[in-house]
Design brief:
binds zinc ion, mainly beta, 76 residues
Amino acid sequence: MEPGSPFRKYQTIQPDAGYPVGKNLHYECLVCGQVIPSMPDDDLSCKCRNIMIDVGYGRIKIQDHAKARLFGLDKS
Ligand SMILES: [Zn+2]
């Protein structure tokens, strides 16, 4: 981990309950390794499109939950 970087608090993704979003929440794709914020300014997907966020519809789509992680940033 880089010095001074915020601490990542990983959470369990429960697809049946819907995908949580928040300013501090980020999704990490374990296929391509990209991290994307859960509340981007514009539609966003990771490089391999395992995780896709549709801002207009407020929806998050994840193809393979086993290959995705969710974490919040804890600055303390
Ligand atoms: Zn990906």
